[in-house]
Amino acid sequence: MRDLPHSGVDDTMTDLSQSLEDTALDWVVLLNSGKATADDQRAYEQWRALSAEHQVMADEAQALWAMLGHTPTAKQFKTAPPAASRAKTWWPALAASVVLAVASLAGWQQWPMLDSDYHTGVGQQQSVTLADGSKIILNSSSAVSVNYSADARTVILRAGEALFEPVAEARPFVVRSGEEQLQAGNGVFSVRRDGDALTLVVSAGQVQLIGGHQPMLVQADQRLEFQPGQPLLAQQKVDAASLTAWQRGKLIFNGRPLAEVIGELERYQHGRILISDRELAALPVSGVFELNDPQGSLKTLEQRYPLKVTYLPWLAVLH
Q: CA-to-CA distance for 171 and 168, rounded, in angstroms?
C-alpha cells in the first residue's frame, strides 16, 4: 500500500510520481483513517484547489469511497470489541500441516494453465489482443482458451479472472465458465471463476448470462454472482471501476473485513496467508493496496493494525 500523503508533502512532486487519481485516493484514505490532523485537512484543501482537474478527481475519489463503504459485504461486518488476549498457541501445528497441504496442491492447480491458449502465473497479468481486435486482460493465476469460428467467438475461462473488451460485429462474443455462458455484443466486463462459482461485473454495455436457469441480463455497474445448485442472486449495483481496479495494479478497500482483504492479497503471491481467529478476521480494513508488493501490504497492515505477521515457508500467519 502506498504511503499516504501528509502535510508538508510537495504536491508537484507527488503528481509527477503518480496520477491525480492515485493521489486523490491516497488523500481520501488518509482523511477517513481517523488519523488525519487539521494540517492534513488544510493541505488536502490546498491540493484540491490547485486546478479544476484536481477538484474533479477529489470528488470522484470521495464518491468511490462512499460507495465502497456501503457494499453488502462491508455492512455484514462490524468492529469486534477488543479482547484481553488471543489464543496464539494453536497455529504453529496448523501452520505445519498447511505447508504440507500447499505443497501437495501445487501440482494439480497448474493443470488449467497447461490446457489453455493464454495464462498467467501468480502475481502476473497479461493483455491479449485477439484476431478480431477484441481484448482480454488476464489477472493473476488465470487461464483462457480461444475458439473462433464462422458463427461465434468463444473464449473459455478455465481459471482465475479476466476482463473482456469485445469488438462489435455480427458474430456473438461468448465467454464460457463451467456450464455458464455469457454473451455480449460489445462493452467491457470481467468474469471471475472460483471453482464452479462465477462472478460477473459489467463496466460498460450489457451481458446476458445463459445456463441451466432463466437467462439474465446484467447492465453496466452491476454485479451478478452465481453458484451452481443455488438460485441466481439479484444484480447488485456496484462501482465497476473499483471492482476492476486490479487491471490498474490496485486493490481498494473501505471498511472491509480483514479476511476479505487477505483473501484478495493471497491471489497475488505464492503460498497461503492464515488469520488466527475470527475476531481478527472481522477487523475492518481500509486502504489502497499495490498489487506489485503483496508482502509490503502485509507489513503495512502490521504497522497500522493490532496484529503481527509470522512468516514460514509458503505461509504467513496473522495473529
A: 8
Which residue intervals of 136-257 are DSSP H helices? Answer: 240-243
> Residue 143 and residue 139: Cα distance in Å, rounded?
9
Contact criterion met (CB below 8 Å) for 30 and 65: no
Q: How far is CA 251 from the centre of its chain?
A: 5
Residue 223 and residue 200 share a domain: yes
Whether 113 maps to a domain, the answer reads no
Per residue in 219-251, pLDDT tens? Answer: 999 999 888 877 776 678 888 998 999 999 999
The alpha carbons of the chain give a radius of gyration, in whole angstroms, of 21
Model pTM score = 0.70
The answer on 220 and 137 residing in a single domain is yes
Q: Would you say residue 24 lies in a domain?
A: yes
Q: What is the pLDDT of residues 51-99, one digit of tens each?
A: 888 888 888 777 766 655 444 434 443 334 444 444 444 445 445 444 4
CB 225 within 8 A of CB 285: no
Q: Which CATH number belongs to the domain containing residue 219 in this structure?
A: 2.60.120.1440
